Amino acid sequence: MPTAPLTIREQITNRLRDDLVSGEFPAGATLRETELASKLGVSRGPIRDAFIQLSHEGFLTYQANRGVTVRDPPNPEDRGFITMVRQQIEGYVVEKGIAELDDVGIALVERALRRLKDACDSCEANRIAQCDIAFHEAILIACGGEDFVGAWRLLCSRMLLTYTRLENYEQSYQEHAKIFESLQTKKARATIAALKANIK
């Protein structure tokens, strides 16, 4: 079945999200609807909708007298805690659901891994970051963890503001390939260990 074309709102949201992940907008920067609408050649409506969506995702925040600003990345102590919680969520979902993992779920994760490989080969930092997160989300869904995805995404958005896995693209891909290998053979302990080694 062909994929439905993205709406203008979705296109703008994706564009701004990519810009935030790649560091196009520094922490604390004020984003203005009028300026971005002019730059991107759209009305203010899609920009406003994108601001709302990205605020829900944790990338932006509204501050009185300042408007919409880019959130500061977490400090090292907070990032350590966020990392631990994310590891706990993914590990719990895998441990609980891996036994019921079916061919459809495996195929979902495998497609996400292929997209990550393509991103790593392209050396596009923001694309790699997004595909990295999409791979982990595919695991959550494949293992029946849909109820955790909303909270998990908020944690991921905070980590993406200081994405640090971009120094060695091939190493990043190999870490994810190792996760998939263990998941595919339904080895819960090995999968969880590989996830924890990757989530930093």
UniProtKB/TrEMBL annotation:
What PANTHER family does the record point to? GLUCONATE OPERON TRANSCRIPTIONAL REPRESSOR, TRANSCRIPTIONAL REGULATOR, GNTR FAMILY
HTH gntR-type domain sequence ranges: 6-73
Cite the InterPro entries for this sequence. Answer: GntR_C (IPR011711), TF_FadR/GntR_C (IPR008920), Tscrpt_reg_HTH_GntR (IPR000524), WH-like_DNA-bd_sf (IPR036388), WH_DNA-bd_sf (IPR036390)
Answer yes or no on keyword Transcription regulation: yes
The record's keywords, sorted A to Z, are: DNA-binding, Transcription, Transcription regulation
| Lineage: superkingdom | Bacteria
Spell out the PROSITE patterns in the cross-references: HTH_GNTR
In Swiss-Prot or TrEMBL terms, this protein is called: Transcriptional regulator, GntR family
Organism listed in the record: Neorhodopirellula lusitana
Keyword DNA-binding set for record: yes
One Pfam entry name: FCD
